[in-house]
Amino acid sequence: VNVEEVIAKANEYYESNASEWEFSQMFGEEDDPSSDSDTTGAEDNWISSLAFDSTGRFLAVGYNCGQVVVLTQQEDQTYQLYTEFKSHDSEFDFLTSMEIEEKINQIKWFPYDSCIPALLTTNDKTIKLFKMLEKEGAEGGTEVVVKPKKVFEGAHAYNINSVSFNSDGETFISTDDLRINLWNLNITTEAFGIVDIKPENMDELSEVITSSSFHPKSCNLFVYSTSKGMIRMADLRNSALCDRYAKEFEDTESDIGGFFQELVTTISDVKFSPDGNFIVSRDYLTMKIWDPRIENKPLRVVKFHDHLVPKLCDLYENDSIFDKFECSWNGTSYRLLTGSYNNNFYICDAFGSHVTPMCAVKPTAQQKPTFPHPNQHLEASQKVLHTAWHPNQDIIALGAKDFGYLYVRKTENDPK
């Protein structure tokens, strides 16, 4: 890949596709301002995962209570309820005497052409594969039936943080703090451990795995990120056990030193671009775009949290510094999306300098769209953690507590 050519094509794209966005719709139930929003009951309704399918027709929304709501795109580009189902229930692990939450940690749609839509959901310990079928109802209408087809469990001693389908259409990986397992979709009874960073003596543990992702086109390549701010690329052709990674990406030029350095450099999300040519990583303060051929520095660093640096002590005290923000590519691999505090979110040109800051709120007739500014009072409880970008259109989905927002890019012929 010629990076100069990519940047030139990206700049052409930016000139013809201005990054101007407008509110489309919202879904979910608003927080009741009279109640304590930090109570457990309120948190059950918080969004914990968002995912578009490969066509963009469906948007799946996972919740802390284990519920999955599937929305479907209408002719006017809005999304309406298609079906909902209970994916996970809370369980008790008698070996560790701990409750396993029903919270949906991640949703991934089966990304290949199939007449029956299918999606993977996971909580801390169990991964499930569901299929959605449309059947004629008793009164002639169409009803949607969701069937659990496979349950993958018993392979993770630690909490699962991510799952990722392989481009071979047959396998997927699941990742916890110390291990990555490779599963075959047709075999639920066993998984193959391909990464294991657990030391013989747990006192020597210096890092954990935070996220992982398969390459969208090369079935042998995957990346995983760590709490030390490193991204490792592994190649399944080299070795069945990928403890010896093929490449390791690290940005050694940190602006933050001392106690907070490792906390703010912990990578919360890592993804290949849809074309497979670049990698994006999200840490607490920045988003970084990497060229896979250059391991010692990122191609670009997008900084949007510099105003939080003086407040790191406060953010540590209220545990906000451990928040895990997601990031998403658009279908062209030219733009990126990520969230922030005060319900702010940022749409960034991956190969340019332009960043569009916005605030996820429902606009009223009198209210103009609000834009974040660095001096605004920090509301750490109001945050956009979860993001998803429609694979073929400029429609983005945002998850902020118990509310979801959809925004669309303005076009020149937009009548609004």
SSE arrangement:
Elements: H1 3-16, E1 21-28, H2 40-43, E2 47-52, E3 58-63, E4 67-73, E5 79-86, E6 91-93, E7 98-100, E8 106-109, E9 118-122, E10 127-136, E11 142-152, E12 160-165, E13 171-176, E14 179-184, E15 187-196, E16 209-214, E17 221-226, E18 230-235, E19 247-250, H3 261-265, E20 269-272, E21 279-282, E22 286-290, E23 300-303, H4 312-317, E24 327-329, E25 335-339, E26 344-349, E27 355-359, E28 386-389, E29 395-400, E30 403-409
Antiparallel strand pairs: 1-30, 2-3, 3-4, 4-5, 6-7, 8-9, 9-10, 10-11, 12-13, 13-14, 14-15, 16-17, 17-18, 18-19, 20-21, 21-22, 22-23, 24-25, 25-26, 26-27, 28-29, 29-30
Can you describe this structure?
With 416 residues, this protein is mainly β. The protein contains 4 helices and 30 strands. It has helices spanning 3-16, 40-43, 261-265, 312-317, and strands at residues 21-28, 47-52, 58-63, 67-73, 79-86, 91-93, 98-100, 106-109, 118-122, 127-136, 142-152, 160-165, 171-176, 179-184, 187-196, 209-214, 221-226, 230-235, 247-250, 269-272, 279-282, 286-290, 300-303, 327-329, 335-339, 344-349, 355-359, 386-389, 395-400, 403-409. Strands 1-30-29-28 form a 4-stranded antiparallel sheet, with no helix packed on it. A 4-stranded antiparallel sheet has the order 2-3-4-5, with no helix packed on it. The radius of gyration is 21 Å and the shape is globular.
Keywords:
single chain, 416 residues, mainly beta, four-stranded antiparallel sheet, 4 helices, 30 strands, globular
